[in-house]
Structure formats: C-alpha cells, structure tokens
C-alpha cells in the first residue's frame, strides 16, 4: 500500500459503524446521483474505475447501473477492501478490488472508459496530481465524475442548531490539518481543468427535509463514531425532534471529459 488515506482516518473499532454511515449517506442521494451518472454515459461503460471505493456499497450500485462494465474498485485501505469482498460475495464477478492509492494506481495507460470518485477528493492533499493519474488511465473522450461536498454550501439548518456551525468549522480545520479540504466542492472544475479534463457538467444534488423527512438525514449525518461524536449525533437528534428545523443538504457533481 503506497501513500496514506490523507484526512480519512478510521480506527479498527469504528470501522463497522463507518461502513453503516457510508451506506446511509449513499442511500440519501444515490437516486439523484445515479440519474446524472446514467445521463453522462455510465451505463455504456465497459471498463469502469471507482476510486476510493470504501466498503463496496457504491460498487454494488455501480454493478446495477453499468451492466456491461468490468469494475475496478480502487481503495487504499485493506480493511475496506476486505469489507467489499464480503459485501459483494454474491454479486456477479464483474469487479476486482485493487488495494492502492489514487496517487499511483499502477493501472495501464488508457485502460478505462469511465471513472468515479465519490467523497474522496476532500481527503486528498494533492487533488490535481490525483486527477492527472486518473486522466492517465482513461481513454481519450472518457468521463471522470467527482462527487463531493463544500462545507460552506453543504448543510443548512433553519433555525440553526446552537454551536453546530462552529463545530463544523472545527471539523473543517481538523481535516485541513490532515491534508484534506472540506471546501473542495467549489474547486472541482479547476481541479479537472488543471489535470487536462474539459468540464462538461457541474451540478448539485439538493435535498429538503420537508420532502423526505428527518430520518434519512439522521442516519447519514451521524458523524464518525467515537464518544464525542456519538454525543454530537444525539444532540442533533434531540434538536431535530424539538425544533423541527428545515434541513437542506447539497452535494456537488463535476463531470470532466478526458481530452
Ligand atoms: C469517505 S470514504 C467514501 C467511500 C465511497 N466512495 C462512498 O462514497 O461511500 C473515502 C474512501 O477513500 C479511501 N481513500 C482515502 N485516500 C485514498 C487514496 N489516496 N487512494 C485511494 N483511496 C483512498 C478511504 O480509505 C475511504 O474508503
């Protein structure tokens, strides 16, 4: 395993809980994401590269929306690779796990025809170099989709929860100190262009509690596990129950075409 997982650090004891959080986070927005991925050509892919594939829940959905594709699920953390093997044991064998870093994939030049990186770029200290490596392994004309957040324009609570905004700033600073960037959303077009992609689409997915209720947010917004974070999740639950604020959540999807 080369490189490190940047600002994405999960202890052994919180791994299972993190996999559940990722599953809930995906369930919240996947239908809207999949619609865009399909309109940007993922269903026609035959050699699909998923970067930072985590415990396999997204890979499972990709097998469904890209029915002709062989999927390379690239992931730096061997524990995540092992979870993906368990989760996908019964799925068609159209996928392989590659345990390495996006920074130096060792995959052949121009070997893939679609690439997706979901919630990975916020953890990378050298996002342009990472995107260049993706460009190297894509055939000319292939789409590369990055899905990620921008903390300044991500979650809105009205009325605000006391202390929540400050806590989110602390989270962002902590992630930055580890080399990540929770404000990466605004930079996605520039990252793509700097790495040799033409930006074909830059869109947001937006959800509102008046339309889907609170439950999906509660599952997905629960922070990484650990005593302090569990307390935060419980405080958020109590706030939603008592204040019934409106909750809006937004994430960013950029689609670049490899020149
Ligand atoms: C927040 S999780 C997202 C997982 C999955 N893409 C999803 O959307 O649920 C980020 C994943 O990227 C992986 N990761 C972090 N740095 C990486 C790197 N340099 N190369 C490959 N994977 C990396 C982490 O181990 C983790 O599994």
Comma- or semicolon-separated keywords:
259 residues, Rossmann fold, eight-stranded mixed β-sheet, globular
Tell me about this structure:
The chain is an alpha/beta fold and 259 residues long. It has helices at 15-39, 57-65, 78-87, 127-137, 164-177, 188-194, 209-212, 215-221, 227-243; strands at residues 47-51, 70-74, 95-98, 114-118, 143-148, 155-158, 197-208, 246-258. The protein has a domain at 12-150 and 181-207 and 251-258: Rossmann fold (3-Layer(aba) Sandwich), CATH 3.40.50. It contains 9 helices and 8 strands. Helix 1 (15-39) crosses helix 8. The longest helix is centred in the first third of the chain and has 25 residues, at 15-39. The radius of gyration is 18 Å and the shape is globular.
What amount of the residues lies in strands?
15-25%
Q: Describe the biggest sheet?
A: 8 strands, mixed
CATH topology of the domain at 12-150 and 181-207 and 251-258: Rossmann fold
How large, in whole angstroms, is the Cα Rg?
18 Å
Report the structural category: alpha/beta
Tally of helical segments: 9
Please report the distance between the alpha carbons of the first and last residues: 30 Å
CATH architecture of the domain at 12-150 and 181-207 and 251-258: 3-Layer(aba) Sandwich
Low-confidence stretches: none
> Mean pLDDT score, rounded?
93
- CATH superfamily of the domain at 12-150 and 181-207 and 251-258, called what? Vaccinia Virus protein VP39
What's the count of strands? 8
Order of helix and strand elements from N to C terminus: HEHEHEEHEEHHEHHHE
What compounds are bound to the protein?
Answer: S-adenosylmethionine
Share of helical residues: 40-55%
């Amino acid at each position: 395993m080369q490189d490190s997982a940047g600002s994405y650090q999960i202890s052994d004891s919180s791994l299972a809980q993190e996999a559940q959080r990722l599953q809930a986070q995906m369930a919240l927005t996947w239908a809207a994401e999949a619609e865009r991925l399909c309109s940007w050509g993922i269903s026609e892919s035959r050699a699909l590269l998923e970067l930072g594939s985590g415990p396999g829940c997204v890979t499972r959905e990709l097998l469904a929306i890209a029915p002709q594709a062989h999927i390379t699920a690239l992931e730096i953390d061997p524990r995540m690779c092992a979870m993906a093997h368990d989760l996908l044991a019964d799925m068609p064998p159209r996928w392989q796990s590659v345990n390495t870093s996006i920074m130096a994939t060792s995959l052949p030049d121009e070997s893939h025809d679609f690439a997706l990186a979901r919630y990975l770029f916020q953890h990378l200290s050298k996002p342009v170099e990472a995107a260049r490596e993706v460009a190297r392994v894509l055939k000319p004309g292939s789409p590369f989709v990055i899905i990620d957040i921008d903390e300044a324009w991500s979650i809105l609570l009205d009325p605000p929860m006391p202390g929540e905004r400050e806590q989110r700033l602390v989270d962002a600073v902590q992630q930055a100190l580890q080399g990540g960037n929770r404000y990466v959303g605004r930079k996605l077009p520039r990252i793509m262009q700097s790495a040799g992609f033409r930006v074909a689409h830059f869109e947001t997915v937006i959800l509102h509690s008046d339309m889907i209720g609170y439950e999906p947010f509660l599952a997905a917004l629960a922070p990484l596990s650990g005593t302090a974070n569990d307390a935060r999740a419980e405080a958020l639950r109590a706030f939603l129950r008592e204040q019934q604020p409106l909750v809006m959540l937004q994430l960013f999807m950029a689609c670049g075409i490899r020149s």
